[in-house]
Amino acid sequence: MQIEKNQQINMKLQQSQVSPQLMSMTLLPGEERLVDVEVFAPTKGPLDLYILMDFSNSMADDLDNLKNMGQELATLVNNLSNDYTIGFGKFVDKVVEPQTDMRPAKLKQPWHDSDPPFSFQNVIKLTSDSKFFISELKKENISGNLDAPEGGFDAILQAAVCGDKIGWRPESTHLLVFSTESAFHYEADGINVLSGILPRNDELCHLDNEGKYTEDINQDYPSIPTLVRLLRKNNIIPIFAVTNHSITYYQKLQEYFPIAEVGLLQEDSSNIIEVMNTAFKNIRSKMSIHAEEKPKAFATQFLTTSGSAAQFGAFNYTPGEIGKFKMLLRAQQEVEEAPVCKIDPKQREGTMRVKPSTFSAAANVRAAVLCPTCECEKTKIPKAARCHGNGELVCGKCQCYEGWLSTFCNCSASAASQDSSQCIAPDTTEPCSGRGDCTDCGICVCYNPDQFEGPYCQYDKTQCQRYGGFLCNDRGSCVMGRCACTEGWSGNACECPKSNQTCRDTKGGVCNGLGKCVCGRCECPNSGIEMTSTCEANYQAQLGVCEAMRSCVQCQAWKTGEKKEKKECAKCPVKIVMVDELKEAKDVLDSCSFRDEDDDCTYHYTVENPKGTTDKGLEAQVLKKKDCPPASLLWLLPLLLFLLLLLALLLLCCWKYCACCKTCWQSCLALLPCCRKGRMVGFKEHEYMLRQSLLTSDHLDTPMVRTGPPKGTDVVRWKVTDNVHRGANHPQALIKPNPKESIQYPISLRLNRLFSENLSRPESRDAEQLRKEVADNLNEVYKQIPGAQKVQKTSFRMQRNAGRRQEYAIMDTVLPALRGSYSDIVKLTEKNVQSGNLRDLKVVPGYYTVATDREAAGAIEFQENVESVDVHVPLFVKDEDDDKKQLLLEAVDVPLGIADIGKRLVNITIFKEHATSVFSFLQPAYTYSRQDGMANIPITREIIEDGRTQVTYRSRDLTAKDKKDYLTVEGDLTYNLGETQKIVPVRLLELAEKDGLLDDKQVKQFVMDLSNPRHGAKLGRYPRTTVTIADQPEPSAIMFKKGTQNFLTSDPTYTIPVVRNRNLDTPATVKWRTKKAQHDMSGPLKFGPGDTEKNIVIDPKTHPGPIKPESFQLELYDPSNGASIGERKTTIVNVTEGGQKPLEFAPLTKGSINKTATSPGGHVLSPANLKAKATGPRSIHLNWDPPAGNPMGYKVKYWIYGDPEKDAQVLDVKTPQADLTNLYPYCDYEMRVCGYNAMGDGYNTDMVSCQTLEDVPGEPGRLAFNVISPTVTQVSWAEPAETNGNITAYEVIYTPIDDDMKPVGAAKKVKIDNPKKRMLLIENLQNAQTYQYKVRAKNSVGWGPFRDATINLASQPTRPLSIPIIPDVPIVDAEAGDEYDSYLMYSNEVLKSPAGSKTPSVSGDDYTMNGKWDQNFLFPGGLGTRNLSASSSPMSTLSSNYTGAGGTYTTETTTTYLTGPGGSRRQDMIGGGGVHTSEVIMRKRSENRGYTDENIRDSIVMGDLSSKFQSPGGFGYTGMQSSSQNQFSYSLSQGSRARTPSSDVNEALYNLDRVLQDARLSPGVPDTPSRLVFSALGPTALKVSWQEPYCEKDILGYTVLYQQINGGEMKRVDVTNPAENSVIIQDLLPNHSYLFKVKAQSQEGWGPEREGVITIESAVDPKSPLSPMPGSPFTLSTPSAPGPLVFTALSPDSLQLSWEKPRKPNGDILGYVVTCEQLHGGGDVRTFQVNGNSAETSLTVPNLTENVPYKFKVQARTTQGFGPEREGIITIESQDGGAMSQYNMQSMQMSEMSQMPLRTNDVMLDSLFSDGMMMTTQRTETSGMVTRQVTKEVVQRSVTGGATVTKKMFYES
After folding, report:
1. What confidence tens digit (pLDDT) does each residue in 1778-1799 have?
2. Looking at residue 1587, what DSSP letter applies?
């Protein structure tokens, strides 16, 4: 490291300084350097202040105030610095539609007394003359534009990059004050009509001599990342002085700048001086260090002087003093997974600027990564002879000059040198082996260099030798067809380690001195004694050391025995020493005694381990003297021989003369040892019959017995196969298992150590140590198995009836590996078990078990004198087992021993019975606070057959650790008769002090598992639960106790109970208020510690006047800290007329009667103490106290909260408890109970409510993409159809993939913590790369399943179809470096305001609904933007055309209207849930389908469809319902009119304004219900719900009409209670499509209908197609209508109508029915039949009348009936002086429009605006949701000889 410039800091110099100024260094990859840096900031250093102000009309008063405060501003700057400059700039927006009104008059003066519109102008260059600044500022005048978001980003960029024209000084602090009250436009924000057409901002200065920005209409706005980078590059600190309307946008924007400030302005900017002063102080107090222009090869970290890492802004320094910090510079070893020396050299070196964020001065660090080079690289030989003079020789390799090729540069690159024959390898015929292209000079370029290599691409890098299934043993790489091994390995497959560590014996020698170490293994000589892998005698494999050495000792000491031959005896690796006395048994390895068969004497010896390391075998000390029998008995031998001969003679005579003696003879012969038959082994039983419900284990101990002489050892191999009862054609047998599937292999081995009690306790130290030893050794042994993972679940046990090994420990573990590796695992296990050890783990030979999920193999051992041993057979018990299944157990062979196999086979039959009990946790997750001290986990038992049963429980660590966060528990729970629940307490531990100080606290969780249910029980839905240990208690949940409250006008007060649960030890408050009441009331409600219920008391007499009946809402809001609003946020209060409440008798009423009262008429009184508790996501348990008397039973009524009680389901039970099942997760239910007897139903209890528990959410709705460019897309999705709780987050994963759906790059994850932001903008994707996108949702239970989609942006349209403006859309840069966070920015509510409004419209949280809905369908008018194809489809579209010198363009304006419940239409669209968003996209006409005509001139209108009609010159439209999605298309044809284009446009706009004004409903008539939702309750039942439409008067009720879509009776349901917004339809037919219509009624009449078509799809009984199969699943679907209608005028009285085939018809299409009728009546209805099923169909309709609007309907005729209709309205207009004037038709339009019915589905706008202007509406179904689309017809006519000719039309949908 070298410091090249280090000028010491001069504290007298009043400017920011950094020391050192320049240093250089080179670092090796991975090397680090620490640099000390000093900084100095003066107390009053040079300051440049540039004020950038919004000059739109709404800022007029702000400008006036700023002019008046010019002197105060100068004083402020003077106080901050002794050396200052101040400048001023102004901005509005791009001078182009729709940002600016382009009418000439408006271009000259957009507002009264205003300047022409402009984009940005530098008014006052930075100057130190404050008087000049004040005088110039007073000359400025306001300007104006149309939309609320302004073009301030253009102004900021120009102010940053035009340094010389603005006047920034290099040594000063640069401050830019940005003042506005509006939001901002940014790059491709979707509101800009130029989005997708204009190029990106070039980031250059474009100011003319007057300081005006000249390129505003030629390039797009800059992006936020661009502004962040340029402001930081030019050392400019932004200060955003904004009003309350837009401050939230800029607060979010502030987060992406290294340093920035946001200040809140008053509406008139009167406090701008205070805002600026506060911002200056905040900036002065902040310092963050950055390394700018840093090459990718380097990483930086900034430290305090003490060496600790400093966080952003953590450097505390005082202006006027020297501050110090350290910079740690590190050279990366890899950059983006590539070695640093392989990346672009420009990224390996460079000069970075290290400076505080407020400084202009910086420490320049010139750094480079040193990539070492060889000496030969430095001495190149030019024109080397080896290179034929055509190249340089570098390190023995030719580097050819230009024009020369090949290895030795002997081939010219000219065309004559191309000869493919040089690319053909010997003995082949295909150039480059068919794996590459043959280029010049016979050089092969391989298609896939990562796989193929070699001069002829003849080598495949995946085809080298493998070892253990791994290429080159995973210890090398495949190079040119051979394995190139890493250091320390050799062999053809790199299978041989070069070290001899694996050949080391127990004494440290190599192969015990007897063998050679070859390829890491010992090659041992054949000595006749079983050897270990290191050539040491393996006595354990021969039943002990005594037995193994017996023959060797015998031959060496006595020259007897089976090895008495000298040649055989010499092979013994035993050294014997003859001694007179043996050592005691405790002092030797073993003490042995055997009988010598040659002399019948017994000899004795002891065995010891060798004393020296050079000794190669064991040492045996042999007692010189044998123990022989007395010699006096030898005379008996002849006598015994004589007697035996005599006996044999007698027996022979008996056999000869007496047949009856034959049997006796054979029996006697069998008594002789020499004639006895051999040993036999076999199973004790032939068959076992088992009941699954009675099984207490998943194994069966099956005894195997041995007969015959018990001496010696026999090892028997066995195997067992599952499901042998299934034949070859059984469905399950036909399913072949996947050999690549990863499964678990249970493995059991007998360890060579005794079992102890400690090993039975998993937490004991002995068990932990042994578990680690087992894992370490087994992982090493099994790592050669392909796909094998680490062993797990290791435990230890004893096995009874195991012979002499009964006291030894058996180890059970599980090895995850591929299914196809079963035989390899068995062979490897058997081989290692035979050797007596698995690496360093000692095991007992002769015992092992290896199992899968369908077969197992193993071995057992009979030791000497052992006659019976149990085989531990796995039973493979699974839930999917057949009711009766068979296993076949087989004794395979006897690999060690002399026994034969007798009873070889055992049939095991298992009968599956229904469980007697079901064990489950109540819910899948629990949360407990540490302060609770104890987590009480309930385990429930569902009783099917009562009896005694047991289940095992055990806790296990996740992020919470045993003995640190909690104490682990395990054990068995025993349930006696009638017991249904037990509690397992788990002790929670307090946090340690060091853990409590951690900032980033990890969520602590552990799990508890249930296992081993016994006595016929099984595990239920939640066999596992996750327990979260919360360090902070959950907030209190405050809610209304009931959903509705009923009172009388005579009641003195209205008492409404409010309840609180959770965290009851702290006080809490909440506020309440009334909504839609006669008198507004509000107030606070306080809960003290321990309070669970409080009452809101309303006194109706506090307001003067009579008390009238009414219904109003009561709402809770604004909870205090530590509290939250629960599910029941609102309650409905119904006040009815009356003086006394009627008596309530069940079942006719919903009240209750005290059970102690007398029961009139013998009816059963109401049960008492009704309690409800959720036992799961789909179940609730009820219990109550029986009433007096003897009820025969009880009826439980339950219904979903909000539904009418008359639709309740009824459950009849006989006991005072009930379990409600098949409920919806996380759903509120209301219940009440009554008893009944012979007199009938008794009295009801009070209603109780209960909410089911949460469950994991379903998959999100279908993904939708807005393709903004080939590298930028906006992905959105719908909330899961089944949220099953509160969605808390979403996760988006996007991965680049190839054509085989395999990843080709790293997957990137984005977690969106705000569940309402279901949209993500991803930038900088790889061009032309296919990506897979996956989205899943999360609630408190956990993550749900993924919804995935695959798209290649390059194959999509090159401009965005539409970009919905959704607030706070996360934007992710897929290629962002470490300078940015993963979230670059959020989009903001950049919406339009009505002209003249100072308040921007603000959209709601999120209303985008995309996707496929299985059980809930959102129909037109729903709160959402729909999807079309692969992008969001606009809800309403204004289309027009531009014709200009640069070409012809088409613009589309997308407008979305959304209204929440009870919303009101207001001009600013803020209140009442009203939402209005707009966006505009421009594209070239050449991209459209259709034709163009040079005579067509179009204009564009963009404005707010608010309810207040403005002046004809404005852009506000009237009368449109904010709840409906209406689409308009219009075009203006100039034709032959001799009028100016401006007058044509102005007249058309005026006419359109007036038409839209009159298209509204009559006052007081309800709008269309704004949302229609279908929820399937069953295959024949449907819940239809809607949202209350807007109405200026009270809604009296609703009507629901429905009928089958193919005809039939129209049924009607009247809803008289306006508070009810849903009905349940029970009588539907499965798989039949129904048309539903809903409309609302007020005093003024019925409003328009909301329509929807729906089908409940389910499996039906084949014998009865109208009867659904019981228990079968059901889903919702909807058929679609024919595609958009296209009209082509053929003559004045005929046209051609064409349409597209429905995308989802209800059945096979047979043809179509087309009806035609006059829109306003008159004439006959004409019907046309069109046959066929083509993709596009057309029909010619003759005999029409000019200037008469016609309505056409097209309906598909299918095998199931008729589908939904597609409607369109068209008029063939007169061109040559018809009844209506071309220019005086306004009154006709208004009268026509005022008489037209305005419906949500059909906007009937007569196309009478002007020549060529037509409007139609169409309905399009997309993803199960219905939206409206617009067809646009542009008909150009020209008059030739009095004939009317249609020249061409342009169509666009």
Report:
1. 333 333 333 233 223 333 333 3
2. -
* Residues 1236, 1195 contacting (CB under 8 angstroms): yes
**What are the strands of the beta sheet with 1572-1576, ordered from one edge?**
1416-1418, 1572-1576, 1582-1586, 1622-1625
Residue pair 1516/1510 in contact (Cβ under 8 Å)? The answer is yes
| Residue 545 main-chain phi, psi, to 5 deg | -70, -35
Query: What's the CA angle centered on 597, arms 595 and 603, to 5 degrees?
Result: 30
Least confident of 62-76, 1171-1185, 1348-1362, 1677-1691: 1348-1362
Predicted pLDDT at 1026: 92
Could you give the strand order of the β-sheet that contains 1308-1312, starting from the edge strand earlier in sequence? 1308-1312, 1289-1296, 1330-1338, 1347-1352
Among the listed residues 1221, 1178, 1177, 1176, the one whose alpha carbon sits nearest the alpha carbon of residue 1196: 1221
* CA atoms of 204 and 165, how far apart (whole Å): 13
pLDDT tens sequence across 1669-1717? 776 777 777 777 787 788 888 888 888 888 888 877 777 888 999 999 9
Residue 944 contacts residue 914 (beta carbons within 8 Å): yes
Most confident residue range from 68-77, 169-178, 1653-1662: 169-178
> Beta strands of 819-932 (E only): which ranges?
837-838, 841-851, 855-862, 868-874, 884-896, 900-901, 905-911, 917-921, 925-929
- Rounded to whole angstroms, the Cα distance separating 1476 from 1404 reads 9
Q: Which amino acid belongs to residue 249?
A: Y
Q: Alpha-carbon distance 737 to 184, whole Å? A: 60
Query: Rounded to whole angstroms, how far apart are CA atoms 185 and 195?
Result: 11
Closest CA to 1428 of 1454, 1449, 1403: 1454
Contact present, 1103 and 1079 (Cβ < 8 Å) = yes
Burial bucket for residue 314 (CB in 10 Å: 0-12, 13-18, 19+): middle
Q: Is 309 helix (H, G, I), strand (E, B) or coil?
A: strand
Label residue 450 left, alpha or beta by phi (over 0 means left) and psi (-120 to 50 means alpha): alpha
Residue type, 1143: L
Instruction: Give the DSSP letter of residue 269.
Output: -
DSSP state of 1147: T
- At residue 312, φ and ψ (nearest 5 deg) are -55, 125
DSSP 8-class letter at 1450: E
Q: Report DSSP state, residue 540.
A: G
| Cβ-contact 1038, 1084 below 8 angstroms | no
User: In Å, what is the CA distance from 411 to each residue of 391, 415, 416, 1066, 1080?
Assistant: 11, 11, 10, 89, 96
- Burial of residue 643 (CB within 10 Å: 0-12, 13-18, 19+) is exposed
The CA-CA-CA angle for residues 1376, 1379, 1385, to 5°, reads: 65
Helix axes 765-782 and 822-835, enclosed angle (nearest 10): 120
Structural Rg of the chain based on CA atoms: 45
Instruction: Report pLDDT digits (tens) over 835-893.
Output: 888 889 999 999 999 999 889 999 999 988 888 999 999 988 887 788 888 899 999 99
| Three-state SS at 275 | helix
Interhelix angle for 60-68 vs 272-284, to 10°? 70
Residue 468 corresponds to which tokens in the numbers above?
Answer: 């253990």
The residue assigned the tokens 């309307």 is: 245
CA torsion through residues 70, 75, 78, 80, sign:
negative
Total residues found in the chain within this entry: 1853
The per-residue pLDDT for range 226-264, each reduced to its tens digit, is 998 898 888 898 999 888 878 888 988 888 887 888 988
* φ, ψ (nearest 5 deg) of residue 599: -125, 5
Task: Kindly state the percentage of the chain with pLDDT values over 70.
Answer: 77
